[in-house]
């Protein structure tokens, strides 16, 4: 094997030498040494003094398996792009207050967090990098990238408020020290940093975005020896200069009408280059809503107009990827705190982007490649388009085991917190006093006598969905249509009730209220960020049995975070004799050969969470539009793979697999 490889690589060298190869981007832009980085001091960009157009694609490393980063980058470079853009997710890198993870740091997402490796791999694949560390990133990501433990601190988000800035500074000092050496002028790949994110959009009623906050962030970069270009990005046609800083390069975000945006920017920022920091080539999806698509011809039209203007761009997204586990965000309606308009984002962040969620080529890929071949003026070497990884629709498997809800709690409770009052998940004193950020929270009341017709009343709103069980038996109605979101067990109702028993009364019963965190707001108004606790918490909130109208106190609170070590060590599984939820279900996927990418098809299930070999890959909901969940090959192994499903309502007898994502119109009615 080894001699053969050497022969092959020699042959490569000879053939490429004889055809006088074009330089790589790094050869072209760093030959003769590096004396300057990305500059916007003239009507066009220069990099190290040479004319440069930013042809960038967005790939959020936390939405793509680490084992596939290089593959996605090769595809990016082969399309003719020269730059990779990514946000940096604070909530992942500082999962608990003061506890950091930049790869293998012990957190649940540790494998995604090797940011130095990402920056190095990009350079190896001949891509420059634009970094957008926020700290607020929106990105349809959980809490817009904020760690949920910030809710414990009474911080004033996205402002210069002292507590907030104290934590931002602590995190930025850490992050920027980790990536400092990866700046372009120090021999690395990062050519620019974005300050905040669409801060102009944060304007709300009489609240105006605070320039001192942006200045504070700018100062953190300066203090941490960041020397590359700083920029801000907003849509100037909407927000004018609300999110900008004097002297800091302003980019724009757009989906259509590039000329309108660019001309507006040129008015306030003449003699500068233009950059569409986000050119939206697709869009994200919400649960129980339509799947959004943008035709390739629209992308061709707008991209060509951007190139002709001429302007630089970042394709948002080049590859959208996946909101693994509990990482999806949600939209929240504008008026103060109004749960009525909570809308969670789907697990898939496919975005109808240039590559699919699973890294496959779309028509848009070839549109981009063709246009860049036509418009690119700097002759650098564009590698061949890589082959695709085969997908495997594995044969369906039977569900073998079930773990009842009672046994989940009785035999596996990771903590039981006794509390006189209801507490939101973030205020539990667990995880090094950082609270619970993800998963479900169980409010258990034991030893209650329930006369017949007892009604359970929850004052305020639940955040976000609630299941009620009496002695381990689900009382909540099975979700059947989107309209059910207006009823008991969902966020919209203020003050909701459910009848616990119709037949006979019960004495010494156990009542569980299981509340799901379905996604923290990723965008909303400035007053909402420090109020979006999850669980049962609202100011007036009480839970009571209305037959006696007695407020219930003295709860047992059990957080269910679905940490890998917990899921892999669950006790109490039995042979499955019923499909009744709320429960965990187990199926074994045997893979005799090297695993391949696949999609688990959840159309026969109702609502819940899928966990593969201990890692929660995401949520599902029969209402759509997403009907399958992407399982990348690196999450599977040769041999037995553990598929564990937390189903709220009603399981199916089997799970099946598909070779691609299945979208539906809103599947309203079962
Ligand atoms: C750089 O681009 C500008 C604007 O297109 C052009 O005027 C200038 O000649 C270019 N410089 C080089 C060295 O190509
Ligand atoms: C707990 O948090 C503190 C900072 O708040 C940190 O120094 C310490 O390492 C953390 N401990 C663990 C076990 O994570
Ligand atoms: C939320 O933040 C605002 C500042 O934006 C502050 O005035 C307010 O006290 C904070 N509220 C809480 C509950 O921390
Ligand atoms: C909350 O939003 C819904 C839907 O927009 C609206 O009908 C309702 O009146 C709002 N409630 C409050 C208290 O603002
Ligand atoms: C909900 O209950 C609280 C407390 O009893 C009450 O103040 C509030 O007006 C009720 N809201 C609605 C919409 O009925
Ligand atoms: C109530 O039920 C629990 C088990 O859930 C049991 O341990 C306890 O002895 C019962 N108490 C009474 C008074 O029946
Ligand atoms: C993993 O779980 C097992 C069994 O519950 C426990 O003994 C072990 O300490 C846990 N390990 C870690 C790293 O949490």
UniProtKB/TrEMBL annotation:
Task: Write out the catalytic residues in the record.
Answer: 198, 278
All copies of the Beta-galactosidase galactose-binding domain together span 585-641
Q: Which domain of life is it from?
A: Eukaryota
The biological process GO terms on file are: carbohydrate metabolic process
Q: Which Gene3D superfamilies match?
A: Galactose-binding domain-like, Glycosidases
Keyword annotations of the record: Glycosidase, Hydrolase, Signal
Q: What span is annotated as the signal peptide, if there is one?
A: 1-19
Q: Which family does it belong to?
A: Belongs to the glycosyl hydrolase 35 family.
Record protein name field: Beta-galactosidase
Species source reads: Exocentrus adspersus
